[in-house]
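Escalation from tier 1.

The customer reports that the assembly of four entities below gives different structure tokens on two consecutive runs. Tier 1 could not reproduce it. I'm attaching the input and our single run for tier 2 to review.
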Amino acid sequence: MKRTFLCMLAVGVLLQAAAQVRGKIDIPNLPGYVTLKCDFHIHTVFSDGNVWPAVRIAEAYREGLDAVSITDHIEYRPHAGDIKASHNRSFELAEPVAKAAGILLIKGSEITRAMPPGHHNALFLTDSDELDQPDYMDAFRAAQKQDAFIFWNHPGWDAQQPDTTLWFPEHTRLLEQGMMMGIEVVNGEEYFPEAHQWCLDKKLTMLGNSDVHDPIQAQYNFDKGAHRTMTLVFARDVSTQGVKEALRERRTAVYCGERLIGEERYLKALFEQALDIKIVKVNNASVRVTFTNNSDFVFHLKKTAHDTRLVYFREYTIQPKGEQTVTVRLQEGIQGGDMNFSIENLLVQPNRGMDYTIKI
Amino acid sequence: MKRTFLCMLAVGVLLQAAAQVRGKIDIPNLPGYVTLKCDFHIHTVFSDGNVWPAVRIAEAYREGLDAVSITDHIEYRPHAGDIKASHNRSFELAEPVAKAAGILLIKGSEITRAMPPGHHNALFLTDSDELDQPDYMDAFRAAQKQDAFIFWNHPGWDAQQPDTTLWFPEHTRLLEQGMMMGIEVVNGEEYFPEAHQWCLDKKLTMLGNSDVHDPIQAQYNFDKGAHRTMTLVFARDVSTQGVKEALRERRTAVYCGERLIGEERYLKALFEQALDIKIVKVNNASVRVTFTNNSDFVFHLKKTAHDTRLVYFREYTIQPKGEQTVTVRLQEGIQGGDMNFSIENLLVQPNRGMDYTIKI
Amino acid sequence: MKRTFLCMLAVGVLLQAAAQVRGKIDIPNLPGYVTLKCDFHIHTVFSDGNVWPAVRIAEAYREGLDAVSITDHIEYRPHAGDIKASHNRSFELAEPVAKAAGILLIKGSEITRAMPPGHHNALFLTDSDELDQPDYMDAFRAAQKQDAFIFWNHPGWDAQQPDTTLWFPEHTRLLEQGMMMGIEVVNGEEYFPEAHQWCLDKKLTMLGNSDVHDPIQAQYNFDKGAHRTMTLVFARDVSTQGVKEALRERRTAVYCGERLIGEERYLKALFEQALDIKIVKVNNASVRVTFTNNSDFVFHLKKTAHDTRLVYFREYTIQPKGEQTVTVRLQEGIQGGDMNFSIENLLVQPNRGMDYTIKI
Amino acid sequence: MKRTFLCMLAVGVLLQAAAQVRGKIDIPNLPGYVTLKCDFHIHTVFSDGNVWPAVRIAEAYREGLDAVSITDHIEYRPHAGDIKASHNRSFELAEPVAKAAGILLIKGSEITRAMPPGHHNALFLTDSDELDQPDYMDAFRAAQKQDAFIFWNHPGWDAQQPDTTLWFPEHTRLLEQGMMMGIEVVNGEEYFPEAHQWCLDKKLTMLGNSDVHDPIQAQYNFDKGAHRTMTLVFARDVSTQGVKEALRERRTAVYCGERLIGEERYLKALFEQALDIKIVKVNNASVRVTFTNNSDFVFHLKKTAHDTRLVYFREYTIQPKGEQTVTVRLQEGIQGGDMNFSIENLLVQPNRGMDYTIKI
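Tier 1 run:
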């Protein structure tokens, strides 16, 4: 009885239910850029998902996302016996809801093929129906003609790559022809270290998306503080064009669980924008380092090689949204030194944390 | 990436996602009857709901329900531009999933009319399409011909009854012609005390249902211990026939938040089956009463008129699944007496708790 | 291993543990006043509580309280066999921790007597030891001499008032001699409607406190969104003097679960400061009323007598921290009218909600 | 107001508060042994903890532990200015509460020295005061004379071992003289892989304890499903003697977060007792493997070297308390084979998961 019989606006879904309050994830902007929280891989009943498109906007709103793309499969539509529709239809249905909710909705589709080349998402489309082609290269060319941003989804999905995550000649071809600009380094909860390396080596954009099919709550426990896997996009402004430009220029990072995955320049900037570090010399033998974390990120620090006369923690966790103080002891009369550590959950290389130094 | 591309069984939705563990709500059986947790008012994309039918079974499974009925509107189908289907279709799609999950799925539909007579659900249908009739009485007759159990939904819904909950002559007619056997005393979180009284006076079955349209988690916060509003059915066995017989014989109670609503004989039986009460005389001046609550129910007790030489709590809460002890003092040499209280959240009459006495 | 062996500062308890982030409860200030969240009834191991005083400050910090008073019993000290200390000791131990944490700590004690007069808290003491007197009137006089604010605790506690909440001649005497300025209208989760009425009639300050003995988490489930029962104090500034003046001038309200209890002028002001109400005429037949709730309060609205041509909800809940829109229909050509309702959980009289009107 | 003024039994703390329901952690017994959940490292106000001893029993009860030891520091008592007591006192105060709650309470103390030898716990003491000795070896000898079980606490605590976890000659001496029988492989959330290796090499008992000082909820978020770090003891019966014998015979495993740490024979037995594995051949090309997990453990599986014609997941998580099915494909006409994987969170060697094979 949450529906008014006669005058239901599509937009209503966001405003009527009690719990539909806009969420907020505190992630800092970077100098010159606004950080957008994005999910570019989402399904609805118009392919093999299980919810109506408006639900995807309500979810994004509740979770505090900035931009999403509904990327229903072109070639896999198990509900087609009941739902006959253009490949543009899920976008059309979600668009007014997204507008009302203040969510950027980017038109996309999933080109869904056996491996190689596997599944790829094409974003910023103008007509998804053009991608419905028998030959996969025709589908990619149709996307390219629409100036799409195309990326490889879940490159290590065990249903397609049962034992190893391989790069095929077909991927080289797509890359060379400008039809693969990025890869999902994380899909759902699964991280692909090989893809991480490929992105670094081949200068590809790193993405992380939910690939949600069911209601999002069946996949993430938000009450336990979880967030969906998302791509952080460092855009010049909050617009579709801003997202597109950022994706093409590889200004992204992936946020999955407690991990951030990306190029060092962005992870370092996120770390430094998230944290205020204040150093106070207590006396000749001790210094107090206060971390004020203004973000929802957690940071796991682990001491690395250093002057052992500078005595501090071996492992240390900086919690979200709080202030914590660490005491550093100066031994044998030293006046200061380098406090070296790795931030274990900021992956700047496959499964490798980011080194950082605080000058004491 | 939670889907296998080629071999997706409808049943898969229950088994693949990590969180899909069968839930459990501890509610006692009654002597001679098994207590079934049921929701007889549910929508999908086949009317104005926002999820695919299989999701409703996954939800019921996760929450530990025993039986559900998907009751899409006959007359209100806002997604009809995209989905062309028989009124039987949501049942057909959900049926194999329900079977695999061990959930009783009862075929139903919602006859959706202006007030009077408002909305009514018909359960145990054989062909929902027969209910698609211009005249509402023809729709009711078609349901009756299929030997349906028919009940009035949300009688006090403010969109149809803005100021008062009224019984119209049309309802008398339905009742007299055997086409209204029950009423939703609770719909979603809304309780209708007038309907509660009508059920008592006119010997109608009391029901409480979720009327869920969106993913159920948007309506209930299960992580905070919430459960959906449900009808408890005291059936001879776990079968569609068992449910039908129980509904016809008014063997139900409504479970909504912390409240139980129903006839005294059933609420009393639930209370007594849920609780072990042990009385131990400590000495001449005090007695210890230990409550062992084996159920998920909470009970809010409030002292009523009593011999004031028997001294005990004024208000007391028995928590779910635990053991709690109360000390009763005997003053002025009395040897015992009646410990009288009302169980405030067991409503045996509109907004009135159930009286109970423990002999000390 | 959360302790450094040699250099533990009392203050450390707040800074070292991971979860020790300052909480935040969003409650609006009132024009001319800052709203302070206070708990004036707290125990430690120095009477019959079970935690060290510093824990009480850490709890207050984590929960976002502004001011607390540790009010250990003068006459009841079950741990006295192990702990020998002045009645000032728990304050002394907590004071530096409170200072470091930015919590106002008000020195207090509980005068703990059989009924009448029962238990009373004295706040703003300078020397608690002076209250340790054989005759209760001497204890009250000692508090008065220190210019204390004295209030009656849990007037309807069933251990002292088993069946009814009575006002004794002793209370009249305390009141007349200026030794009772307020009453706990709520203690823990228990609300005393009789005390609510006495406060209104006798112009006494209304208080609500936790009376916590165990670790606070054993009493409140913060993860489910609970908050401890607290006194909201409308002070001119954030200072002990500001709290004292406000208490003496009855500028308080009680916040317990979802309920606010207090004088209408304060509850009305809280409601209006918490909420932005925007009215937009859609057309001749309907008006949209948008509530933006900037607070953590929930408001339960229930329609009261009104022009029935103005059609709106029967019951409606405004959730915390969000924006919700209600549609009001204008029938039979009316241009507007009074939207009347009671806010059921804002108690301006015993068990009675606050009436409110929005002009359409 | 949760206390009765006159008749407070120590035992009361467990029975009176609403939330004091005995918790339950589902961990299987092993053939011939009952699995006891134990925490052997706990502090109270009688050393540098912040709660009264009874609170520790209430916590253990609520969390479903079987046995605890309160191990207040002998040499570090920062509250000694207020609390003068024998080192036996916290045990004496907790003992009747433990008895009433059905928790095994083992008398213990922490010998608290600079490194080397660092901190050590002695369990099964008869008189803790005997351990109060100027020379640490005298303290160890006093414990040994009482037939204590002695183990090294947090060997890699950065306050004592700032950069590396070292084994000192003093430890060899303690070991050789039979005064070190075990080591904390985990203390709080911190895992010491070096200690893990020492236990394997030197045949020492592995322990994991909370070392809790504050109320336990400040350290663990139980509402998010956390459990305290604990030692699983495989005892012949539920008795102090049973625990002692098991500790001496190294029948333990450590349970910390999602990880189990221990000897392979015990982790393998836990895995096999926790899980029912059912293998059903669907047809010549596929086999269904159903895992029924009856425990609260989660298991993270990762494929290892195998015949690649047997196609299955790369990574897979078996959730607690549920049933999950995996499809294994048989390619190129094979009839079966070995499904090999490592259980990543079952550490049988430092930071190394346990290999396992299911025959298909």
